[in-house]
Specification:
Structural class: mainly alpha
Strand content: under 5%
Radius of gyration: 23 Å
Largest sheet: none
Number of helices: 10
Helix content: over 70%
Distance between the termini: 5 Å
Low-confidence stretches: 316-332
Mean pLDDT: 83
Length: 332
């Protein structure tokens, strides 16, 4: 199938879903390799984190309850106190290890999928070996972009916290305060979702253009204009499905002590595979959205220029300039 550059700007959210499915199916071999090597470990780390965090918290809380019922100054009290301190230390070490591994695999998965989609669009010869050789040269740019969005998110939450404190001090006890609180919560949610969308599009910009970090965020903010509602609906649906998956995993696996162990293992495998597919689908979608936005703003994409720059990834890394990131058509 051929899709001309001019046609891509007219793709709606259903069309983006369809386009993403077609890409994954047509190139299922390469995406299977990427999933097995990067996305499956990412999903395993994510789900394992939920299970082990629950075990840590339950054990610590149990010991703290027992400590509260023990007379202070006794050997048992001192032993429990030391034990709880050690458990909290192990808990935070585990959290640090989790976020480090999750962060690394997220960046590597993003780099691999974005490069793969761009290579497909330029009809380049694509192998899993080539993809994996490119990934280490891209993830540093993605790391800078992630740290930039982290700073933006942190400042956003600081401002939100101050606003809610002002609300609590000025009108928290009044009837009108409830209405204002609901409005503030809605505004907060909209702002958070907007930053979330900017972050995902900035990841693609960081791989395919010369900008990264805060500049990539500004670039993605400009690109998303005109397609914001489409992206919002897409990410809301993906987020809802991901949330349902998380809730059901916690209910059936993490807190599913009433089920037989064999049933919990089966549920864990099902949700493990489902979460992996959601991650892959989400990464493909964010890349497709990028090309749709480029088309919408008539930033025509030259296939040969993009292909030449993708080839450079296999040697010394040279990022693309904005005028180089162009696309004519791709073949499936």
């Amino acid at each position: 199938m051929d899709r001309e550059q001019e046609e891509m700007q007219f793709i709606g959210f259903l069309g983006i879903y369809k386009e993403s499915f077609k890409l994954i199916y047509a190139w299922r071999k390469i995406f299977t390799y990427i999933t097995l090597s990067l996305i499956l470990p990412l999903s395993f780390i994510y789900l394992l984190h939920m299970e082990l965090t629950s075990l840590f918290v339950r054990k610590i809380f149990h010991n703290e309850i027992e400590l509260s019922q023990t007379r202070s100054g006794t050997p048992k009290y001192e032993k429990l106190s030391d034990h709880i301190s050690s458990e909290w230390a192990y808990f935070w070490l585990f959290q640090a290890a989790y976020f480090t591994l999750f962060f690394i695999y997220s960046l590597l998965s993003t780099a691999a999928v974005v490069y793969t989609i761009a290579s497909i669009y330029t009809a380049r010869e694509l192998t899993f070996k080539k993809v994996m050789s490119v990934v280490p040269k891209v993830w540093k740019r993605l790391m800078v972009t992630f740290l930039s969005i982290f700073v933006a998110m942190f400042l956003y939450h600081v401002v939100a916290f101050v606003v809610f404190i002002v609300w609590a001090l000025s009108m928290g006890g009044r009837d009108i305060g409830v209405v204002v609180f609901v409005i503030l919560r809605i505004v907060y949610g909209v702002g958070f979702l907007y930053l979330f969308i900017i972050w995902h599009l900035a990841n693609v910009v960081s791989v395919l253009e010369e900008t990264y970090g805060f500049k990539a965020m500004v670039k993605s903010q400009n690109l998303i204009k005109g397609k914001l509602w489409v992206a919002t609906v897409i990410f809301l649906i993906l987020g809802f499905v991901s949330w349902i998956t998380r809730i059901e995993f916690q209910r059936l696996v993490v807190h599913g002590s009433s089920f037989h162990m064999a049933d919990r293992v089966v549920y864990a495998i099902v949700y493990f595979l489902l979460h992996s597919m959601l991650v892959l689908f989400g990464l493909v979608i964010q890349t497709v959205i990028y090309f749709v936005c480029k088309s919408y703003h008539h930033e025509n994409i030259d296939k040969s220029a993009l292909s030449d720059h993708l080839e450079v990834y296999l040697g010394e890394y040279v990022p693309l300039t904005a005028k180089d990131v162009q696309l004519e058509q791709y073949h499936v």
